[in-house]
Amino acid sequence: NKIKTSKYTWYNFLLINLWEQFHRVVNVYFVILVVLQFIPEISSLNPTTSIIPIIVVLGLTAMKDGFYDYKRHKSDSSVNNRSSSVVKDETLTEEKWMNIKVGDIIQLKNNENVTADLLLLSSSEEHNLVYIETAELDGETNLKVRQALPETGEMKDNLRTLRQFNGVYLLSNLIQNGWCLFISVLTDCLVILDKITCCEAPNNYLHKFTGNLYWNNETFAIDNENILLRGCTLRNTEWCFGLVIFAGPDTKLMQNTGENIVFWLAGYKLTFFPKFTSHIYFLKLHFHMFDMTMCVFYVCFVTGKSVLKRTSIERLMNKLVWLIFAFLLLLATVTAVGNTIWERYVVYMPWASYAPNEYMSGFLMFWSYIIILNTVVPISLFVSIEFIRVGQSWFINFDRAMYYEKKDLPALARTTTLNEELGQIEYVFSDKTGTLTQNIMEFNKCVIGGTCYGEVYNEDGIAIVPDDSTPNADFSFNKDAENSFRFFDQRLINAITSGDTKVHEFFKLIAICHTVMPDFSPEGILTYQAQSPDEGALVGAARNFGFVFKERTFNTITVSELGTDVTYEVLAILDFDNVRKRMSVIVKDPEGNITLFCKGADSVIYERLGEATDEDIKNATTVHLDNFAGEGLRTLCLAVKRLNEESYKVWKEAHSKASMALEDREDRLSAVYEEIERDMELLGATAVEDKLQDGVPETIANLSNANIKIWVLTGDKQETAVNIGYSCNMLTEEMKNNVVVHTSKVANGRSIVFQQDGENKFGLVINGHSLVHALSEELAIKFLELATLCTAVICCRVTPLQKAKVVELVKQNQKAVTLAIGDGANDVSMIKAAHIGVGISGEEGTQAVLSADFAFGQFRFLERLLLVHGRWSYMRICKFFGYFFYKNFAFTLVHFWYSFFNGLTAQSSFDDWFVTLYNLVYTSMPVFMLAVFDQDLNDEYCIKFPKLYLPGQTNELFNIKIFFRSIIRGIFTSLALFFIPYGAFVDGMHSDGTNITDLQTLSIVISTSLIIVVTLQVALDTSYWTPINHFFIWGSIGIYFLVTFAMYSNGLYQILP
After folding, report:
1. Residue 201: is it exposed, middle or buried by C-beta count within 10 angstroms (0-12/13-18/19+)?
2. pTM for the full model?
C-alpha cells in the first residue's frame, strides 16, 4: 500500500532530472555549443561563457524540481507511516499503511481516513451502513452512505469469522464453477483466467465500480455503493471492517493523481518517466489448479492520455526560434564565405596542418561564428519565461478581489503555462446550473393531475410575485414542517388534508425516489444529506407537505405519510445518469403491491408514457411545464407504473444477470431498465428555482463588450435556457424578434428555421436533438458559420459529450482561443477540450476544479481573470519577448560588424566575462520585473473599459511583424553601438604619436554604451514604476560598473595579482 508521488531519490535525482531537462531541444543545443567551445581550432571564446549560463539554468530548474519533490517526499512519508488496524490471527494488529496488502482485512474507526480501496464487509451501524465524507476525492462535504452486503454484514466484528473469510474456499468454488476471478486473503492476489475478469482493473473512475463476489457457492454483484475509497473519511460510524481490493498506486485516488500507463505482469514494480510521469505495476498471480499445477497469469492495460496545453504565443515562439536559428546559420555562412574570400584574395594567414587552405579555414570559421553568435537564442529566455509565469500565477492566487469569502475559496491557478492566453479569449463556453446560477434549489411550483399549484393571486385574481409580506400557507397540520419553508398556495395544503389520492401519490413518489440520506442530530433534529441540490429541495418539500422521508436501509425505505410510518421494501433502484436523464425505484408496500416510481426530464418521461395516459392531463402538464421553463424554473416530470408479481420476477431475473455482468454492465443494465420503464402513468411535474449568482448579468455584459462571445451549453429545457439567457443579458430585448431557433424536422432532420431582420444582433438557440444533426460531418461547418454570426449561442438539452464536441468544433475551425467554465462532473469533458478550462467550486463538488487550469468560487470572477489578469499577463509577456529579442540582437550583431575589421576570424568584440554575464546578470532582472509587475492601466480601468481587451484577441502586441520590428531595432542599435565608437577611436592618437586606443578600450566603450542603452530602453517600456523596478533597473547599471571596475582595475590586480 506504499505510495510514491515523488519522482526522484537522493541517488537518481541528478541523472533523472538532467534526463528530463535534456528532453528540451534548446538545452541540448547549448550543451553542443559548450562542447564546440572546447575545440580550440574553432572557438575564440572561453568555454565558461556558455558553461556558466547552462549550469545556472540547469541548476535553477533542478533546485525548483528538487524543492517540490522534497515536499512530495515528506507528504509520502507522512501518509505511508500512518497506522491502521489489521485482522491477523484473530486479533487486531497495528500496521503502517505502507505494509497493508491486497487481501488484508482492516478495521476503521470513526473519523479515520480510509487506508486503501476497500470492499465494505460489516459495520457497527444498523443494516451495516457507514457514512463517509469524500471531500479529499471530489470536494463534496456532504455525507454519503455506503452499505455492506447483508451476507458479509452478518460477520459484524467477530474476528474469527472475519479471518475465515479467505480465498482458499473461494478458489475451490471458483474452479468448480468455472468462474474467472476472486479476491484472496491468503494469497493476496487477483486471479485472472481465460482473459475474462470479474473485477475491473485499477482506474480513475471515482463514481463507478464493477465486480462480483463469489462466496458460499453464491455470486454477489458489487458496485460503488459497497466500496470505500482511499481518501474518504469515516464519519458518524463507530467502526467498520473492509477487505483491501486495491492498494497503493492502484487505488482510485492515486490513479487520479496523473495519467498512468499501467501493466500487470509477473514479479516486480517499476516506475519510469517517458514524456509524462508514468507507472508500471507488476503483480505475480499464483494458484494451484486442481492441486497439480502452479499457474501464472498476466494482464496489462493502459489508462488515459494526457493533453499538454500550449499557448498561441508559445507556439509562435517555437516557430520564431527556428527562424532565428536559420538566421544564425545564414550569418555563419556569410562569415565563412567571407573568410574564404579574405584568405584567398586579401591575405592568407597560414594555419596549422588542420587548415592547409582557405576552404578549410572557411569551414572552421563557420563553426566559430555559430559559437560566437549563439546569443541570438539565449538560454536565459526559456528559464525566464517559466519564472515570469510563476510570478503572474501568484498574483492570481493572492488576488483578494477574487476571494469568495462565503466558502473561504481563493482563486487558484492550477497551471502556470497559460497565463498570457487569458488575455486572448474570444469564445467562452459556460454551463448554466451552478455556473451562472447558484445551484441552491427552492421548491417553487408543481402541477399534479393537470392542476398547477404555487401561483399567488391578489384579491382581483391577478397573479403576483410573492414577497416578504405575502402570507405563507398553513402547515400546522404537519409537526415536521420547517419554519423556513415558504409556499403560498393554500389549495395544495387543502388537497393533501382532504385525502386527494393523486396528490398523496405525487409526494409519496418524491419521498421515495431519490438517493438522499437522513441524518438525525443528537437532539433528534432531522436533516438531509443530498448529493444533488435538486433532490434535497424536492425531498425537503415532501417533508413539509407531510410525507417525511425518515430512514433508509439496504432494502427498505421508511416514510412518514401524514404522521403514519410506512416501510417500503426496495426491490430495485434504477440509477440516474446523464444519458438516461431519469431515475426509478421499484418498491413493495406493506400490502404487497409493487410499484415503479420514476422521475426525470419531461422529454424522456413523455416518450415512455402508456397509451392509456389521459391526454387532457398530459396537455395541461405540457402547458404548465412551458410556463415554468419560461420563468427560468428547473422542471422534472413524475410518473408511476403498477407491476404484477409475475412480470416483475421475469424482469428481476434479467436485471440480476445484467448487474453481474463484468463486460458492458452499464449498457446491459440500461437495456434492462428500458424494458420496465415504459407504459407509465403521468402524475405531474415539479418546478424548483435556481437563482442567478451575484454579478452574472454585469459580467456577461462586460465580457460581450470585450468582443468575447458567450455560448451556454446546458442540459435544461429550451424555454428555461432562453429565460436565463434574457436574465443574464446574453439575449436582449432587441433580439426578441430575431432569435435564431435551430430545429430539426421529423422528415429529414436537416431543416433550419432562421429568422432575423438583417440589422440587429441576433442569437442562436439549439437543442440536443438538433445538435446531433448540426454536428454531423456534412453540416458541422455550416452550423459553425451560422453560430459565429450570432452574438450569443445557447445549446440546451445537451449531453456532456456534445458539450465537448461543440468546443472542439470551434477550437479546430476558428483561429480563436476558447475557454470553458463549469462546476460539475458533466462539464469535465468540455473543460478539457477548450484551450483554457476554468472550474467553479460549487454545490456539485470539485470534479470540474480538478480538471481545470484555473479555479474560483463564483462566475463573476471570470471578468477579473480575463480583463485584468489575462490582459496584464498578455501585455507583459509581449513586452518581454519584444525587448528580449531587441537586446540580444543589439548585443550579438556587434560581433558580426566587428568581423569585417578582423578578417572574419571570429574574434570576439567583448570580454569573455561580459559575454557570460550580459544575459545572466546585467540585463535579466529589469525585464523580468517588468514582465511580473508592469501595468499600463490599473484594474479599475481595465474593467471599466473592456474594449482595452481587444488587442490580445488580434495578437496586436506580439506577432511576426512586431518580432521583425524588434529585430530591426536591434540591428540598427548594434550598428550605432559599434560604428560610432569605432569611428571615434580609429584614427585617434596621443601627442607622442602612439595609438589612443586598443581593442580593450573599444570593447569597454561599446559594452558600457550597450548596457546603458538597453537598460534605458526597458525603463522607457515600463509603465508602472515600483521600488522593485527602480532597484533592479538602476541596480543593473551599477552592478555592471562594479564588475567592470573589479575586472579592469590596476589596484585590484595589485591586491590580487
Report:
1. middle
2. 0.71
